[in-house]
Amino acid sequence: MTGTTSSGDGGRLALPRYVREDAGARTPVAFPDYRSTGLRAPLRTPVDLPHRLTEITGPVLGEDRVAPGDADLTLRAGGEAQGQRINVFGRVLDSDGRPVPGALVEVWQANAAGRYRHVVDNWPAPLDPHFDGLGRVVTDELGRYEFTTIKPGAYPWGNHHNAWRPAHIHFSLFGRAFTQRVVTQMYFPDDPLFGQDPIFNAIPPAARHRAVATFDLDRTQPDWALGFRWDIVLRGADQTPFETDDDGDVA
Amino acid sequence: MSEHVSPLVRDADGTNDRRPGTPRRGSGFLDGPHRLPTTPSATVGPYLAIGLTWPDGADAVAPGTTGEIWLRGTVRDGNGDVVPDGMVESWQADPAGRFAHPDDPRGSSSTAGFRGFGRSATPGGEYAIRTLKPGAVPDGEGGWQAPHVDLSVFARGLLDRVVTRVYFADEAEANAADPVLSGLTEQQRATLVARPTDDGYRLDIHLQGADETVFFAV
Description:
The structure holds two protein chains of two kinds. Chain A contains two helices and 16 strands. By secondary structure, chain A is mainly beta. Chain A has one domain: Protocatechuate 3,4-Dioxygenase, subunit A (Sandwich). In chain A, strands 5, 8, 13, 14 and 15 form a five-stranded mixed sheet that branches. Chain A has a four-stranded antiparallel sheet with strand order 7-6-11-12, with no helix packed on it. Chain A has a two-stranded antiparallel ribbon with strand order 1-16. The longest helix of chain A has 4 residues, at 53-56. The two termini of chain A are 27 Å apart. The relative contact order of chain A is 0.22. Residues 1-8 and 240-251 of chain A have low confidence and may be disordered. Chain B is globular. Chain B is mainly beta. Chain B starts with 47 loop residues before the first helix and ends with a strand. Chain B has two domains: 1-35, no CATH class; 48-206, Sandwich (Protocatechuate 3,4-Dioxygenase, subunit A). The mean pLDDT of chain B is 90. Chains A and B meet through strand 2, helix 1, strand 6, strand 12 and strand 15 of A and helix 1, strand 2, strand 5, strand 6 and strand 7 of B. Chain B: Residues 68-196 form the Intradiol ring-cleavage dioxygenases domain. Chain B: InterPro entries: Intradiol_dOase_C, Intradiol_dOase_core, Intradiol_RC_Dioxygenase, Protocat_dOase_a.
């Protein structure tokens, strides 16, 4: 990486530091209204870990993790999934605005009826033989990704009386450093279920809109599929500044 | 000739430090980096196995590699109950202390079949990663970090991953000099040190409780 030098094993290294969002703009690990956090979210204050080699590197994962057809969730087991066909697309950037190319994006979701193909999801909504809810794509050289799926349905869960999850798609990204790893959920605009959902409301109010896709008519394919744009921003790296005599002026 | 002083700009005079964001005239240039706000995290939920299962997920190193070990442990909640629906991911250096990554300034790991990354579900609460014992890693300031593995724990009930580290009980000397362990109490350190077993090492993870694992803010 630019600006990184070595003076031999054990020597001094100029390492990037990945910026950390203020606590008020990050999802907390625990949120009392989301009851499952009660016995699982750690109670002690985490210990600050300076970013060293282990934290500024991370798994290199790309096309080798993706199979043909992984970018189109609507075609499975020789047939078409039921539901509203959508294209979900966007860019993966870091917080400095730089695209993150070649990044693995893993997604999973419920079917159009709001049911997951999973052994512990057995609420009375139909499974779809042509939908497994798994997709994988790799960002291109400009950090762009795109996949085709069906809009997932809402589904009930046991958090509180008459609790329903808003429609969402789970996203998992690595970036290029351990510090950039994020797993999150993308929501759809104007969902009436937002108000009662503790997982959505655990996100600080000022940051909630970043979890919501926007409808895009320009990227809606006539007679085919609705377009939803969702850009994802991973933590960016502060490069260690070079020692310099000038004051930063450029001609 | 004196500079024009706008009546609309308070303190628009020689003491104006021209910093944007103050009630003073700015330079028109950003004086700090512009940052995009990051995407907020969310829980993996109970159905993560749909999206995050790989046939070779547990293999931070190819099966059959000389020196392979299993890093295992049980993840428990605040009641001491196992967490059977979570996921543990690992990231570490190879036995030479190098990472399988182009940003390692000493060059990427040259250990054949070494990915350095493992991903394990926690059926019955138990994670298991096939790997090699890492070597010591430079701390970037002229010293060394003891052999360690970074772990991320994901589960229903965790709105973000939680991060911890695994150290090794048979590296007492290196552990004593490690800059991360040195900053912890003896009781805290004990939550991070894996014990040798028949086929590798074992470290249980306690999300809460009297022996709550030390988790790190990265």
